[in-house]
Amino acid sequence: MSTERRAPLDRKRVADTALKLLNEGGLEGLTLRAIAKELDVKAPALYWHFKDKQALLDEMATEMYRRMTEAAPVDPGATWQERLLAANRALRAALLSYRDGARVFSGSRFTGTLHAVEMERNLRLLTDAGFTLAQAVRAATTAYLYTLGFVTEEQGVQPLPGERREGYDVDDRARRMADFPLSAAAGAEMFDYDRHFEEGLALVIAGIGTRYGIG
Q1: Does the pLDDT of residue 6 top 70, yes or no?
Q2: Nearest-CA neighbor of 15 among 67, 61, 71?
Q3: pLDDT tens digits for 12-46?
Q4: Alpha-carbon distance 128 to 55, whole Å?
Q5: Which of 28, 46, 106, 185 lies at 20 to 30 Å from 123 by C-alpha?
């Protein structure tokens, strides 16, 4: 008989296991049954910690955010533009670390108040720079939604970095659209995700400054 003691089953252990399985089978393949099997417990044991799959997704999103903030410390001397750049670059990197990461994050509700620490800090920086609170909320939320939407589309083509779904070959696309030269050439720009993201984020941040007259 084995005398090895297993780690106690708690919310973090379940979420960690779920994130591991997410990369293996994606969101569609992530079931409570699969998680229970990986943890070597019966599926009903998970309901002591999560009432349903959405509750688990909320905890997974919270754990993703926790890992992101640990990996990307805040520069206290950054300008509001630099803060929005850094925060959204870190968010994109975090989401790309998981298959369907953006889909898990989208619409999830954080299970604690850890996110409020960075939110308060960012809103304080924006309001100190001259934004009203309403403008600061719009600015931060618009940049966030740009990033979340961008990565959702990006992962629809590249579920994980270096992995591309069939049917998204840029050269093949250009050949099929040869009668539409501008649209054909646009593929090289559309699917160069790193450059596209950076340029788009810069446009969003420049637009925020222009809209509210705050440089």
Answers
A1: no
A2: 61
A3: 899 999 999 999 989 998 988 899 899 998 877 88
A4: 36
A5: 106
Q: Which residues contact 211 (CB under 8 A, 6 or more apart)?
A: none
Torsions phi, psi of 167, nearest 5? 100, 0
For position 7, what pLDDT does the model report?
67
Q: What is the spatial distance between Cα 37 and Cα 154, in angstroms, rounded to a whole number? A: 31
Instruction: Name the CA radius of gyration of the chain, rounded.
Output: 21
DSSP letter (8 states) at residue 160: B
- Give residue 142's identity as a one-letter amino acid code: T
CB 110 within 8 A of CB 76: no
Residue 160 sits at φ, ψ, to 5 deg, of -140, 155
Cβ neighbour number for residue 202 with a 10 Å cutoff: 12
CA distance 143 to 155: 18
% of the chain residues with pLDDT over 90: 66
C-alpha dist (Å) from residue 183 to 105, 151, 169, 189, 195: 32, 22, 14, 10, 18
Question: Could you give phi then psi for residue 107, rounded to 5 degrees?
Answer: 80, -5
Q: What is the pLDDT of residues 95-137, one digit of tens each?
A: 999 999 999 999 899 998 988 999 999 999 999 999 999 999 9
